[in-house]
């Protein structure tokens, strides 16, 4: 499989603090990568750089294909607008045409399960409702690369299962997925590859099973050392 994402000596710093340090990574087409690591490890920063939201301090990122990023709950939404209006606003930010969104509107609303709340301003939505709407819009078409940052951890179990099914369908059809989660069972269910970051450095990479095992062993060691 060809690589659709490559980083070379990637670095990112904030106010002198290194968040990502000399990271080299090659992601083959069609892989579902689970990103693991403690808070502050650099996972979200790395995905923001890959998606183009942030610029690297040093190094390069090469991506091939259309990226659909779902990085933060409600990112790109205008809270004063209704859910219906935000479908077109957020969809336009992702590069979807008005005609396409009109054609897919009913499908987006149905998947989100928001019902009549679609006509309510987003400022009145819970985080789970914003997550449902954002995920429904971002995944209405098959991007080449789907980036998810903790967005599948919010909402009820039924909706999380439905989202996982849609991501799995994308995987089966060759979409590349980068997925941040603190849930190792979720990573094992959804991912075939894993990456572990710590203090901005890549410390483990391999199959999801191997990386999860390594991560859980490290967490156990840290707990025992307290």
Task: Give a description of the structure.
The protein has helices spanning 43-51, 83-93, 98-112, 127-138, 157-172, 184-190, 208-225; strands at 3-14, 17-28, 32-36, 58-63, 67-70, 145-149, 176-180, 193-198, 201-207. It is of the alpha/beta class and 226 residues long. It has a 6-stranded mixed sheet, sandwiched between helices. Strands 2-1-4 form a 3-stranded antiparallel sheet, with helices on one face. Strand 8 (193-198) and strand 9 (201-207) form a beta hairpin. The chain starts with a strand and ends with a helix. The mean pLDDT is 89.
Q: Care to give the gist of this entry?
A:
The chain contains seven helices and nine strands. With about 230 residues, the protein is α/β, with parallel strands linked by helices. The longest helix has 18 residues, at about 210-225.
Strand order, sheet with most strands:
5-6-7-3-8-9
Order of helices and strands: EEEHEEHHHEHEHEEH
Distance between the termini: 44 Å
Strand portion = 25-35%
The biggest beta sheet is recorded as: 6 strands, mixed
What gross morphology would you assign? Answer: globular
Count the DSSP helices.
Answer: 7
What do the pLDDT scores average to?
A: 89
Using only C-alpha atoms, the radius of gyration works out to 18 Å
Number of extended strands: 9
Structural class: alpha/beta
Report the helical percentage.
25-40%
Which residue ranges are poorly predicted, with pLDDT under 50 across at least 5 consecutive positions?
Answer: none
């Amino acid at each position: 499989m060809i690589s659709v994402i490559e980083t070379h000596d990637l670095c990112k710093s904030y106010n002198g603090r290194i968040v990502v340090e000399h990271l080299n990574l090659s992601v083959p087409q069609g892989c579902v990568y689970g990103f693991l690591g403690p808070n502050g490890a650099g996972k979200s920063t790395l995905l923001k750089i890959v998606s183009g939201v942030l610029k690297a301090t040093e190094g390069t990122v090469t991506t091939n294909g259309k990226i659909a990023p779902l990085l933060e709950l409600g990112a790109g939404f205008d809270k004063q607008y209704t859910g219906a209006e935000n479908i077109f606003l957020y969809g336009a930010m992702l590069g979807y045409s008005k005609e396409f969104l009109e054609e897919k509107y009913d499908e987006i609303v149905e998947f989100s399960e928001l019902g009549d709340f679609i006509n309510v301003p987003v400022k009145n939505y819970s985080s789970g409702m914003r997550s449902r709407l954002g995920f429904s819009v971002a995944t209405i078409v098959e991007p080449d690369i789907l980036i998810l940052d903790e967005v599948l951890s919010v909402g009820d179990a039924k909706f999380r299962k439905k989202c996982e099914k849609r991501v799995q369908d994308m995987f089966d059809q060759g979409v590349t997925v980068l997925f941040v989660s603190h849930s190792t069972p979720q990573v094992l269910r959804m991912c075939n590859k894993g990456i572990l970051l710590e203090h901005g450095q890549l410390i483990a990479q391999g199959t999801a099973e191997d990386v999860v095992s390594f991560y859980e062993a490290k967490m156990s060691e840290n707990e025992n050392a307290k």
